[in-house]
């Protein structure tokens, strides 16, 4: 075991998967010589060569289209899109082709690409650099969508995504890249896709989050612990599609209350789907209305207003209080 931040954990996963599987290739803008804009791919090209770690032109549609062709041929491409706000030119390739190849060919071919992309805000970046686009891809049949919240999970989930036969959109919350370090095994391991994690057990209310909002919720738990007012259960979804519905239902049936925290805009976000499913299936277990703590239905603002947009620990606790005091 060694202490790693999320960047180091992701790099370790890529190193080990490329070592164990010669079909794994990495491609994207500046992933080779520069090691990626956040240095996630640092050292890969010097170890595995330019044939397997490929610096591409600035053309997201070309990066993903090429990756789809590679995957159909039998390779395992891991494509990097530098920021999730840059993914739109490749949206057609992902939604119309990567997600559909298996169905289109009735299982003859698959497109098991992994699209890595930093997402979300909190670092005062420019326009298109802080977006939360997960709902677009969760809504698309044929794609798996993953968003880790810790270095340990990031390494295990990325390894599992690379080994998965289906296309995976792998969101990496850039605010968490170097936020903290934790013990991570140096050897390879996987965390199964589609399995949520109970970060903290509780009995009064279920708090559901993913990505950078998990850390925000943990900070809210620390504020709550100062007076130990509520017993809060925190669930980190980890995989957003397929989502671990049994874990969600089990927790809410136990606590009877639910607060969902997402950084993305409120309307038609993943939180809305979770709330709808809970209302459909767990209505008689609920003691209060479901509460959503989210970003707003606006573009991510420039840096002076960014902290007003992104849910804070205080806003999360206010949501918990609202659920508890109904």
From TrEMBL:
Domain Transketolase-like pyrimidine-binding: from-to ranges: 4-179
Domain of life: Archaea
Oxidoreductase in keyword set: yes
Listed InterPro entries: THDP-binding, Transketo_C/PFOR_II, Transketolase-like_Pyr-bd, Transketolase_C
Keywords tagged on the record: Oxidoreductase
Cofactor(s) for this UniProt protein: thiamine diphosphate
Statement: the UniProt record of this protein carries the keyword Transcription: no
Molecular function in Gene Ontology: branched-chain 2-oxo acid dehydrogenase activity
The protein's name in its UniProt record: 3-methyl-2-oxobutanoate dehydrogenase (2-methylpropanoyl-transferring)
Pfam families associated with the record: Transket_pyr (PF02779), Transketolase_C (PF02780)
EC number assigned by the record: 1.2.4.4
Single biological process term from Gene Ontology: sulfur compound biosynthetic process
Broadest EC class assigned to this enzyme: oxidoreductase
């Amino acid at each position: 075991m060694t202490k790693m931040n999320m960047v180091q954990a992701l790099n370790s996963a890529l190193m080990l998967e490329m070592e164990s599987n010669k079909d794994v290739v990495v491609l994207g803008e500046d992933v080779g010589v520069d090691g990626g804009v956040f240095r996630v791919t640092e050292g890969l090209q010097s170890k595995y060569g330019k044939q397997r770690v490929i610096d591409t032109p600035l053309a997201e549609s070309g990066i993903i289209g090429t990756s789809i062709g590679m995957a159909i041929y039998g390779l395992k491409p891991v494509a990097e899109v530098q920021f999730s706000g840059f993914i739109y030119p490749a949206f057609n390739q992902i939604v119309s082709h990567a997600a559909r190849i298996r169905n289109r060919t009735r299982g003859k071919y698959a497109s098991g690409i992994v699209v890595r992309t930093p997402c979300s805000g909190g670092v005062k970046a420019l326009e298109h650099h802080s977006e939360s686009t997960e709902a677009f891809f969760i809504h698309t049949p044929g794609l798996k969508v993953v968003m880790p919240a810790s270095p340990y999970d990031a390494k295990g989930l990325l390894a599992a995504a690379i080994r998965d036969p289906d296309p995976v959109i792998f969101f990496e919350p850039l605010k968490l890249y170097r936020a903290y370090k934790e013990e991570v095994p140096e050897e390879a391991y996987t965390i199964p896709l589609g399995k949520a994690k109970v970060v903290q057990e509780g009995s009064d209310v279920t708090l559901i989050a993913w990505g950078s909002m998990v850390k925000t919720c943990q900070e809210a738990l620390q504020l709550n612990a100062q007076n130990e007012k509520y017993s809060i259960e925190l669930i980190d979804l980890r995989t957003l599609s397929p989502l671990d519905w049994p874990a969600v239902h089990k927790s809410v049936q136990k606590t009877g209350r639910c607060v969902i925290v997402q950084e993305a805009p409120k309307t038609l976000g993943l939180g809305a789907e979770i709330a709808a499913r809970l209302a459909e299936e767990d209505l008689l277990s609920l003691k209060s209305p479901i509460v959503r703590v989210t970003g707003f239905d606006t573009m991510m603002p420039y840096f002076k207003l960014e902290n007003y947009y992104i849910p804070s620990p205080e806003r999360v606790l206010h949501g918990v209080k609202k659920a508890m005091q109904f």
